[in-house]
Amino acid sequence: MSDQTVFDLAAAGSQADLTSFLDANPNATKETDTDKWTPLHHAAKHGRLDAVKALVDRGADPQATDAENRTPRDIAYFWAHLGICDYFDEKILPSSGTSKKHKFRTANYFGGSPLKRHSEKRPDAKWLSAMLTRHSTRYILFNTLQPMCAVHTTHPGDPVRLHYFQYSDVEKFISLAPAEEGKRQWLYLGCDKSDVVEEGLEGRGYVAVDISPSAKAPAKVGGEEEFIKDAESRGLKFVAARPSVFQLPTKEAAIVAEALAVLDWNLRHPFCPSCGQRSASYDGGWKRSCPKPKEGEEACLGHKGIQNFQFPRTDPVCIVCIVSQDGQRCFLGRQKRFPPKFYSCIAGFMEPAESVEDCVRREIKEETGIVAGRVIYHSTQPWPFPSSLMIGCLAVALTEKFEPEEDELEHAAWFSKEEILEALGSSHKNDWALAHKVETKQDFVLGPGYAIAVQILKAWASGEVDVNTE
C-alpha cells in the first residue's frame, strides 16, 4: 500500500486500506490531481460505492467540481453507476434541489475537447511556427497510431497517461515548412486556453507527430528506432489505442481522438486523387494538395478553377435505440463479432443525400424488418476508429414483428426498462470486449459507459427521454 496514493485507493484499493489511509491522513479527502479530480471523483468513476461512503463520512465534498466543472455525481452518472447517483440524490443532496430523475448528459466520451483548434490561423506559417517552437507546447508521439504513454502498473486507479515531449525532443523529425519532403507527418491539434503557462500567451499548444519506424512509413528521417528504444528504457511505451485510450482522463481522450482521426487520414491519403502525384501536407496537417506545377508543367486539376484540396473526412453513423409505442420496451441486437451475451443498439453509416431521420428508418428496416416512425435526436460522439461521428437517436417502432438480417444480426430481442436498468448496473466500465466476464444473472450485457449506445439506453430507461412527450 505504501506506493498507492489516495486516488489509487479510492479507485481500486481495498476498503480496509482506504479507511486506514484516511484515518492517518484526514485531509486527503480534499486532495486533487492534475485534472482537479478529488478521491471522490475517482471512486465514483470506478463504481466504488463503499469508497464513496467512506470518503463522504470523512468529509469529502460531494459538490466539488473538476477542471470541466463536473461533480462526483456527474462522473458516476456518465459511467452508468446509477446506484452511486441514487446515494448522492437520496443521502447526500436531498435539499439541493437535485432531481432524482437523472440529469440529461450530452458530453460523450471523446467529446468536450479543451482545445481551441485555431482553424483560422493554421494557414499562417509564421504563427504556426511560433506555436510549434514554444517551450510549453506539448508533443504527443504515435507509432502506427499508437500513442506513447507512461504506464503505471502499480497505480490501478490511473494506469495510463499520455507522455508529452517538447519541440527540442522531436525537432529533427519534423519540418516547419508546409511541404518539405523527407520529414514525418505532424499535426497541430490546438491550444488549451485554460492552461496559461507563459506570460503573454493564450494557452498551451498541442501537436501530434507520427514517428512510425516501419519501412512503409511515408518518410523516414533516420533515428526513429533509437529514439523509441531510448524512450522505452525510461519506462515509456506505445500502447494500442484500443483499449488503452479508454483509460485516459476525458480531456486527454478527446485530444487523442482528434490526433488519431486526422493522422490516420493523412497516412491513408498520401496521393492526389486528381493526378496521382504524392501530395503534401499543409495548414498544420489539416489540408493536403499535390505540389504546384513548375513552369512549363501542366497543372493538376486540383489547381484549376475551384481548388480541389483534400480535407479530413468524417463518416457519419446513425445509432438508434428502437422503442415500442408504449415507451416501455426497447429493441437491441447482437452481431456475430460481438462477445458472448453482448447486445447493443442498431447502427449504420449514412449515405449521400440522406437525412438523419431517413438513415435511421432505413437502417432499422434493413437490419430488423421493423418499420419506424418518429425519430428523436439524443447526442453525438466522435469515434476515432478511424473517423466516425456517431449520431445518437431514439425511434418509435410502428411495427414490432422483426426479421433480423442474417448478415447483420445474429440475434435480436425486445427488452424491458427493468432489464436495461439492471444491465446498466453491471455494465463493464473499461473494455467492451470484457463485458461478458461481468458477473450477472442476466442473459445479456451492455457496453461500458463511454459508449454512446449506453448513454442513449440510460436516457430512455431512467426516464430522461420520453418518446411519447419529446
Provide key terms for this protein.
470 residues; alpha+beta; Serine Threonine Protein Phosphatase 5, Tetratricopeptide repeat; Nucleoside Triphosphate Pyrophosphohydrolase; seven-stranded mixed sheet; six-stranded mixed sheet; 14 helices; 15 strands; globular
- Identify the overall geometry: globular
User: Helix-strand pattern, N to C?
Assistant: HHHHHHEHEEEHEEHEHHEEEEEHEEEHH
Number of discrete helical segments: 14
Span of the ends, CA to CA: 51 Å
**Low-confidence regions:** 94-104, 428-436
Largest beta-sheet details: 7 strands, mixed
Percentage beta strand: 15-25%
* Helical residue percent band: 25-40%
Average pLDDT, to the nearest integer?
85
Rg calculated over all Cα atoms: 24 Å
Structural class: alpha+beta
Number of domains: 3
Tell me the total number of β-strands. 15
What topology emerges from the helices and strands here?
Layout (H helix, E strand, L loop, with lengths): L5 H7 L2 H10 L14 H7 L3 H9 L14 H7 L3 H11 L22 E2 L8 H8 L5 E6 L2 E6 L8 E3 L4 H4 L15 E7 L11 E7 L13 H10 L2 E3 L2 H4 L5 H19 L11 E3 L4 E3 L25 E9 L5 E6 L11 E4 L6 H13 L3 E12 L4 E10 L13 E6 H9 L26 H10 L9
Helix pairs in contact: 1-3, 2-4, 3-4, 3-5, 5-6, 13-14
